[in-house]
Every structure is written in C-alpha cells, then in structure tokens.
C-alpha cells in the first residue's frame, strides 16, 4: 500500500483538529475509523530490510574487491599486450629487413646464375677439349702454359661461382624459414592477445552487470527503508494528534462540567430565593389570620372574667405564627473525571503473564531501529488486559503492528498494545484496570508469538518496565 502523501496527511491532521469543541468520543471514533484505511500497513519489518541491505552492501564490497583485482589483471595484461605489440613492431621491422635481404640475395642469385650460364655455354661451345689435346694441336708451344693457366683459372672461378650460388640459395631458404617462423610467432601472439582481450572484456562486462544489479537492489532497499521510516513518523504523528484530540475533549468535558455546576448553583440559588419568598408570604398570611383571631378573642374577653382574660392572654401568647424553616435542596456534586497515576507514580500490572523477550532500547536482532517498547512471550489467543483505566483512542489495524489498541491512561501517558490477533474495545470506550482489550496474535516482526507493548509520555517512547511490575 503506498504511503500517505504530505497533502493527505495534512488534510487528515486538519480534519482531526477541526472537530467541534463539543464533539464526544463517538465523533472521534468516527473520524479515526474513516482514516483507518489510510493508516493500514504503515510499518513493516524494517530490521529485515536493513539486514538485507547490509548483506547486499557486503556483497557489493566483495564484488568491488574482485573488480579491483580484475582491473589489476587488466593493467598487467595491457602491459603484456604493449610488450607483445612492441615485439610485433620489432618482428615486423626484422621481417622487412629479411625481405630486403631476400630480395638482394635473389638478385645476386639471378646474377650468379647468369654468369654461370654464360660460362657453361662457353664450355659447351669448346666441346670436350682437354689440356693435352690443346697441347698437341697448338702450333705455338709457348702459348701452352698461358692457356693452361687460363683454363685452370676458369675452372676455379666456375667452381667458386657454383659454390657461391649454392650458398646463396641455401641462405635464401634459411631466410625464408626464419620469415615463416616469425610470421607464425606473430600470428600466435596476435591470437593470444586477442583471446586475452576477449576474456577480460567478458569478465569486465559480467562484473559490471553484477555491480549494476547490486546497486539497483541497494537503491531499492534504501528507498524501502526511507519509506518505512516515514511510516514510523506517520505513526508518531497519529499518536500526537490523538493525544491532542484527547486533551481537547478533556478540556471540553471540564468546561461542560463547570458550566453544569454553575447552572445547578444558579438553579439552587433561584430555588432558595423562591422558597424564601414563599416563606415570607406564608408568614404574612399567618400573621393576618392571627390578628383576626385576636380581635375576636378581645370581644369575648370583654364578657368573661378576669381569669378568662388571663386564659385568653395565655392562649393568645401560645398562638404565635410558627417559624418556617426552608432548607435548600441538596445538590449532588458533579462526578469527577477518572484520574490515574502519572509518570513516576503507581505500580501497574502487566498486560499479559509471560517473560519479556525484548527490552526497551535493545537493538533488534535483524538490525535497524532499536526497540521502542517491550515484547511479552505468550501463546496465541492469550487475553490482553488494560494496565490502568483510561479512554480508547484507537483500535484497529496498523501496518507492521497487526491489530493495535491505544489507551490514554493519563494526561500525558499512553499505553499501546500491538501485534494483537483481535481487539475487544472500540474508540471512545472507557476501560478499567484488567479490562480485556484484545488477544495475542501470531507471527509478525516479533518472530515468536507474543504481545508488543509500548508506553509513551508526551508522544515520546518511555521504558514500560518503569511503570509496570513483571
């Protein structure tokens, strides 16, 4: 259920504060019941969400450590890649030099092959001439030594050229083999670097996606926590408004009682004045009647003896008008408003019988806000009784608290009974000590079955163990 917006909360507050001065408990009950739908499910398990958030933040920290290690590996791989690229540049330069060398060798080999071809062609044209044949056929024996030296030089040059040509061909083959080796090595390095880059890129994408998902979940948890804290503030506002409304009703009741007392006093005074006037009129009538009787007796006394006159005088003395006593009506005093001990006085009984499993101000097991009340361990269905007499300000569902009952037991002291399975009172009802206000519910934020009990003084949570004995 979405939170109440600020305009709606303000409208609700204005609606409550604008109650007529003479509105009674029924009007307060009607207005609170009309706002119950807006106040349902205001509070949830804030501790569990904060624990979930802490776990997510821990996972995010671990993920960031892994990302940092991966970034270090990326840096190392990039350095290695830079070295490989430098090797590639060097190898490419060497390949360029080898290709130039092969080109020069090929040109030299072509030149050598041309020289050798011409020599072979000249030898072929000479035919199978041997040095002995040349000596026998020459007409100039003096030229024999010179021809012999020429042929020997020619043979040596031919042999050297053949050897050099073979060496050049072998060097070309060796250089080509080295070029192939370098090309293969460069291809392997390029493939290795490409594979490393692809792997690192995939790992980085996976980690980035995980971090984004975790960041989104953490943001959602933080939003939920802010929403729950706002819900708790709404509950505090509800308690404050109910307290103000209760005090306003008390002031109205006291004003009504004072006005009624003044009205009764005025009525009593008027009754006393009427009684006095009636008494005066009755006395005047009796006095007139007595005067008439005295006149008759005087006429009779003239005919009687002295003794009769004495008797008549004695009779006249006894016939004085009786004194009428008017008593004012007894006015019963106005019934006094029920009073209860304020903070720091009294020794209230506990609402249920059972051990206290969570104390005021203790941190919740799942994290989050500290306990603002105490919890009693009790089976489902256990009767929950009022710790002191007072007036019910609220009875109904409240998100995060199940069914809840709020009782004003003093001018500044509230008792709150939460996580009820059912309520047995209604708003505006006067309850006495020990009156059943509901029964213990199950589950909820408490973990085990039990009653959540909270007391507030002037809207602030106070330790219930300071006011009840357990």
Automatic annotation (TrEMBL):
CDD domains: M23_peptidase
Keyword Signal part of the UniProt annotation: yes
Keywords per UniProt: Coiled coil, Signal
Signal peptide: 1-25
M23ase beta-sheet core domain boundaries: 371-464
Disordered: region residues: 285-330
Official protein name in the record: Peptidoglycan DD-metalloendopeptidase family protein
């Amino acid at each position: 259920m979405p939170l109440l917006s600020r305009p709606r909360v303000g409208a609700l507050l204005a609606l409550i504060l604008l109650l007529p001065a003479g509105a009674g408990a029924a009007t307060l009950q009607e207005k609170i019941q009309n706002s119950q739908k807006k106040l349902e499910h205001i509070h949830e398990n804030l501790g569990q969400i904060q624990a979930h958030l802490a776990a997510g933040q821990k996972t995010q920290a671990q993920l960031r450590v892994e990302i940092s290690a991966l970034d270090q590996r990326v840096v190392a791989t990039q350095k290695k890649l830079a070295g490989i690229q430098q090797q590639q540049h060097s190898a490419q330069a060497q390949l360029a030099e080898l290709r130039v060398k092969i080109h020069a060798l090929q040109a030299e080999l072509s030149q050598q092959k041309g020289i050798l071809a011409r020599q072979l062609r000249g030898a072929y044209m000479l035919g199978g001439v041997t040095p002995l044949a040349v000596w026998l056929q020459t007409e100039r024996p003096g030229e024999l030594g010179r021809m012999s030296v020429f042929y020997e030089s020619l043979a040596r040059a031919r042999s050297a050229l053949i050897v050099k040509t073979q060496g050049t061909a072998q060097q070309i083959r060796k250089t080509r083999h080295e070029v192939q080796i370098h090309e293969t090595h460069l291809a392997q390095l390029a493939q290795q670097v490409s594979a490393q880059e692809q792997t690192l890129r995939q790992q980085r994408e996976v980690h980035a996606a995980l971090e984004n998902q975790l960041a989104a979940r953490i943001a959602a948890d933080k939003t939920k926590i802010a929403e729950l804290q706002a819900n708790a503030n709404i509950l505090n506002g509800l308690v404050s408004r109910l307290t103000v409304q209760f005090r306003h009703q008390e002031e109205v009741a006291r004003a009504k009682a004072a006005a009624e007392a003044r009205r009764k006093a005025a009525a009593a005074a008027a009754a006393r004045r009427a009684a006095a006037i009636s008494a005066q009129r009755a006395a005047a009538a009796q006095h007139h009647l007595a005067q008439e009787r005295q006149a008759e007796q005087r006429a009779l006394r003239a005919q009687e003896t002295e003794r009769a006159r004495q008797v008549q005088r004695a009779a006249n003395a006894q016939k004085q008008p009786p004194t009428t006593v008017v008593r004012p009506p007894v006015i019963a005093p106005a019934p006094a408003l029920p009073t209860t001990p304020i903070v720091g006085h009294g020794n209230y009984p506990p609402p249920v019988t059972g051990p206290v499993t969570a104390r005021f101000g203790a941190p919740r097991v799942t994290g989050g806000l500290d306990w603002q009340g105490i919890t009693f361990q009790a089976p489902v269905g256990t009767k929950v009784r009022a710790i002191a007499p007072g007036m019910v300000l609220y009875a109904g569902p409240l998100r995060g608290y199940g069914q809840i009952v709020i009782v004003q037991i003093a001018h500044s002291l509230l008792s709150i009974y939460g996580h009820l399975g059912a309520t047995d009172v209604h708003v505006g009802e006067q309850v006495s000590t020990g009156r059943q206000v509901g029964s213990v519910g199950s589950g909820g934020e408490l973990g085990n079955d039990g009653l959540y009990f909270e007391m507030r003084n002037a809207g602030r949570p106070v330790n219930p163990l300071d006011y009840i004995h357990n």
